[in-house]
Write a structure and sequence with these properties.
- The protein is mainly alpha-helical.
- It is 73% helix and 4% strand.
- It has eight helices and two strands, in the order H-E-E-H-H-H-H-H-H-H.
- A two-stranded antiparallel ribbon has the order 1-2.
- A hairpin with a 2-residue loop joins strand 1 and strand 2.
Length: 185
């Protein structure tokens, strides 16, 4: 975070995540879903800063009392970190095996990665809740797994639109995007 932009991007990402994550839907007592937006944050900030930004957003939400302190480790380790790792990992794989093209960056690294990230997050959350027996398997299936298709496309669309707007109008704001690599053809 040496440049003024990265400090601003970090602060804006942290605030945006905190606002978006408090807009959750509580399916039943103790079980809620929200959009992640971690794919966009990982593309904008990179892997390490996105880990810090998501941690900061969770700490901010816990500090103001919107989430319980006891759920912070589970949320970050089970839902957030794997989604960031998947998004950034898909970026690295696409850089190696796919042509460097604007549409590849937008559709694979943003749209597809976001859909896969929310899928992984919900499935890991369901697995964790099943292993810890906090909810009955029927409740997990009924309330969490059935919501997966309803969360998948909007999450992908939200991330895809955000990255598309940034790449088109302010490409320097996206740390993982380089004009020379993606637009020289």
């Amino acid at each position: 975070m040496t440049s003024p932009f990265s400090s601003k991007a970090f602060a804006v990402s942290l605030a945006l995540l905190a606002v978006l994550w408090q807009l959750d839907i509580e399916l039943i007592k103790g079980l809620s879903l929200h959009f992640l937006l971690v794919t966009s944050v990982s593309l904008i900030l990179g892997f390490r800063l996105s880990c810090w930004a998501t941690s900061g957003a969770l700490l901010l939400l816990a500090t103001v009392g919107l989430i319980e302190w006891s759920v912070l480790p589970r949320m970050w380790l089970v839902q957030i970190l794997p989604a960031i790792a998947l998004s950034y990992g898909l970026l690295l794989v696409s850089r190696k095996y796919l042509p460097r093209h604007l549409f590849v960056f937008i559709f694979v690294n943003s749209f597809l990665a976001a859909a896969l990230a929310i899928t992984l997050s919900i499935l890991l959350q369901a697995g964790w809740l099943g292993l810890t027996e906090q909810f009955e398997p029927q409740q997990i299936d009924h309330y969490l797994i059935t919501m997966l298709p309803l969360m998948l496309f909007p999450e992908a669309l939200l991330n895809g639109m955000l990255i598309t707007l940034l790449v088109v109008y302010k490409p320097s704001y996206v740390y993982t995007f380089n004009d020379w690599d993606y637009l020289r053809h």
